[in-house]
Amino acid sequence: MFSEYLSIGEVLKPQGVRGQVKVRPDTNDSARFSQLQQVYIQQDNAYIAWPVSDVSVRDGYVYCTLNHAQTRDDAEKQRGAMLYIDREHAVPLAENEYYISDLIGCTVQDQQGQAIGTLADVLQPGANDVYEIKTPKGMMYLAALPFVIRHVDAKAGIIVVDETRLPEVAVFED
């Protein structure tokens, strides 16, 4: 689903007594939070800006103050909040790179235009991404390698794969 806002993290819990929270980042570069002046939360089908301050990164988590919180009770009210950034302030992507949120929901099809399924998730186990595709036969896991993924048009919601390579790199869930 192509959206104007991209998820960058989730508030896990309050941190300390001065309004800070612990955030699980949804970004490859947690230090990026230090450069942000605001994030957005979704509330009643609208995105509301929250100021960000006092940012630090430790052990893969982001610690910060959101929306001028001053007490642990203020921070507790933010628990579970999903944090977003608008595309204007998102990290620019290189050629053939995509935001995962833009890929999820895309139709995966072969080179003849036949639908194979719908991209349900992108797993990142290590060397390369693995696409989790919901098909009529069940979940298919596909290594997202350049010789398999032939074309991506995230705005149109289409991922084209080389179906001749599927036996080499795809597996079905039992």
Instruction: Flag low-confidence runs.
Output: none
Silhouette: elongated
For the sheet with most strands, the description reads: 7 strands, mixed
Tally of helical segments: 3
End-to-end CA span: 28 Å
Helix-strand string: EEEEEHEHEEEEEEHE
State Rg: 19 Å
Number of strands: 13
What percent of residues adopt helix (DSSP H or I)?
Answer: under 10%
Please indicate the percent range of residues in DSSP E strands (runs of 2 or more).
over 45%
Strand-helix topology:
Blueprint: E1 5-15, E2 20-25, E3 38-43, E4 46-58, E5 61-66, H1 72-76, E6 82-86, H2 100-103, E7 107-109, E8 115-123, E9 130-135, E10 138-143, E11 149-153, E12 158-161, H3 166-169, E13 170-172
